[in-house]
Amino acid sequence: MSKRIDAIDLNVYYGNFLAVEGVNISIEPRSVTAFIGPSGCGKTTFLRTINRMHEVLPGARAEGQLLLDGEDIYGPGVDPVRVRTMIGMVFQRPNPFPTMSIRDNILAGHKLNGTRMSKGDADAIVEKSLRGANLWEEVKDRLDKPGSGLSGGQQQRLCIARTIAVSPDVILMDEPCSALDPISTLAVEDLINELKDEYTVVIVTHNMQQAARVADKTAFFNIAGTGKPGKLIEYDDTNVVFNNPANKQTEDYVSGRFG
Ligand SMILES: Nc1ncnc2c1ncn2[C@@H]1O[C@H](COP(=O)(O)OP(=O)(O)O)[C@@H](O)[C@H]1O
Ligand SMILES: [Mg+2]
After folding, report:
1. CB atoms within 10 A of CB 219
2. Confidence class for position 1, pLDDT limits 50, 70, 90
3. How many CB atoms neighbour CB 213 within 10 A?
4. Which tens digits make up the pLDDT trace of 194-212?
5. Rounded CA gap, 254 and 208, in Å?
6. Which of 102, 126, 174, 185 stands 20 to 30 A from 15 (CA)?
7. What's the whole-number average pLDDT of the chain?
8. Could you tell me which residues are beta bridge partners of residue 173?
9. Residue limits of the ABC transporter domain (predicted)?
């Protein structure tokens, strides 16, 4: 079930270094939101706080609130492992488990969670997830072959299938097409467009055309200089951010004057 995300006064640290400061944002369910901005402005860092992946690094922490349909995922007693099931993540480089079959890649999350299920139920999850990732037709005859035998674009869709197999509410993607060729990129973009019917999708992209193609809303982050924290500068309908931004920094960035 697609859920809403609200960040409230979120600060993100690596040790003493404040990498991202004071983010306030409401991300709509059943939509695609893009994070854009120059390298180092904290897009990845902020994205990784949304499913508590950030804190796995030693000394890394977040302050403030992050609400998933109103529940603070940083609240006392909240299990970060459960958070990462509800809020899945897809990375820059496709990272299927290389020695596992396509089928076992899809079921990996369930196995990790210790879910017991019949072969029929497992088969149903595999098919539904691969269909959901627009990959079923391409792999249905080779489910027992290793995931690493697929093309880069197929591997990325396999990773998306693996993410949706555990029925998350939110899917986070960090530059998911940056290692893909243009045809595979379009396949993943088409998929992102379909995913928003069921999930809240957040995508970091350095490609402004991609943001314009896939995102309903766009958040522009910027940084005042090295060692300074990244900040959310402007957040609006994608169309507004690209064509009629309210902030001068946004205008300079989207018109290619820097970054
Ligand atoms: N593991 C880390 N340890 C310390 N600082 C980091 C780490 N990862 C990123 N940073 C710093 O945090 C800031 C934001 O980086 P990042 O989130 O990767 O930016 P972006 O994804 O927008 O390019 C940068 O100053 C970067 O050097
Ligand atoms: Mg990044």
Report:
1. 25
2. confident
3. 18
4. 999 999 999 999 999 999 9
5. 7
6. 174
7. 95
8. 90, 203
9. 5-248
pLDDT band at 148 (very low <50, low <70, confident <90, very high): very high
Written as one letter, the residue type at 54 is: H
**All structural domains of the chain with their residue ranges:** 5-99+172-255
Nearest CA to ligand 1 atom 9: 45
Rounded distance between C-alpha atoms, residue 159 and residue 90, angstroms: 7
Taking the CA of 48 as reference, the closest ligand is 1
Ligand 1 pocket test target in 11, 13, 14 with most atoms within 8 Å of CB: 14
User: Percent helix, strand, coil in the chain (nearest 5)?
Assistant: 35, 25, 35
CA–CA separation, 103 and 153 (whole Å)? 17
Mutate to test the pocket of ligand 1, among 45, 50, 172, 222 (most ligand atoms within 8 A of CB): 45
| Residues 122/107, Cβ–Cβ less than 8 Å | yes
Mean pLDDT of 50-61: 97
pLDDT tens digits for 222-233? 999 999 999 999
CATH superfamily of 5-99+172-255: P-loop containing nucleotide triphosphate hydrolases (3.40.50.300)
Atom of ligand 1 nearest to the CA of 35: 22
Gyration radius of the chain's alpha carbons: 18
